[in-house]
Every structure is written in C-alpha cells, then in structure tokens.
Structure prediction request, 123 residues.
Amino acid sequence: MYVVEPTEDLPKVCLDPTQGNLLIEGTSIPEDSEDFYAPILDWLAEFVASEPEKVEFQIRLEYFNTSSSKYILDMLRIIEPLSAKSKLNVIWYYHPEDEDMLEAGEDYKSLVKIPFNLVPTTV
Prediction:
C-alpha cells in the first residue's frame, strides 16, 4: 500500500495492490513534480509487474499544473499494458462546469488504449 495524505499543493494518493484500487484526488501543483511523482511511478511499475487481475484507477483532480500533466500521462502509460491481461478501468472525474478538466480527460483518453470513463460529478 502506498499512501500520500493531501496538502494544499499535493493530491491524496492511495495505491492499494490487494484490491487493485488506485486513487489520486485533489490538487496537484507540487513544487518539484519529479520528486513527488517518481516514487508513485516506481510503485506502479512494480504493481504492473505483479500482473494484477483487476485494476481501477480513479482520478479525481480539481486542478493540476503542466508538470503534473506529464506524470499523469506517465502513470497511464505504465498501467496501459495491463489492459491486455487484466480487467483495467480508468475513471476520470470532472465537475460538469469544468470544461478544462473534461478536455484534459478527453486528451488523456485519446493518448492511451485503456478503458477510460469520463464521469461528471457534483463533489
């Protein structure tokens, strides 16, 4: 299990290998994106190597900066090979009035070959 508690600038991250649940939520504007995301990418690479049967990756970001966007794509690309072997699903949550976040989800969806759901939320 890998957990990062949220702060004003960092998202909550909860990566649970036993359930195959991956969650990132909140705001992602780390001062040093590489320092923040490198351990997450390493964890995901090990998780993918274990060939889990089921993976659900929930992304509930309210805002993220440009440097975070690269790492979000890196996370999706790391788990992408699982779509051939595992039951994989990505859920991108966005507020219905947040066109930028919807557009970002659509962009990521077009860049990876993963079951990818865009889900409006009111929370």
Notes: Residues 33-49 form the longest helix (17 residues). The two ends are 26 Å apart (CA to CA).
